[in-house]
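Late entry, evening session. Most of the bench is empty. Finally got around to the prediction I had been postponing all week. Sequence below, unchanged from the version circulated by S.P.
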Amino acid sequence: MGPDLVAARGGRSNSPADSPITQSLYSGVVNRYVCNAFVLLLAAYPAVARAADDSYLTSLPTGARWLEHLNNDLLPFWTMPSALGNPLG
């Protein structure tokens, strides 16, 4: 059906391809293909992913150093009354 004929009918088409049933079937097929492609990509990811380089882990501070930083550097700032703001909140 040409665009002129569709416009003459008020923008509606009586084509079977434009029926709600056909559109829902089409969208169901498209959704299925998209989902299948997504699953295949997820399944193939470990096969193509490189092994993580974890050499940086040795240069990180220890857990004790992180706790020291939290207690001595961060908490004193955030527990001051001015950290609550004016007005409070």
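Two things to note before I forget:
Residues 16 and 22 are 7 Å apart (CA to CA).
DSSP finds three helices and no strands in the chain.
Will write this up properly tomorrow.
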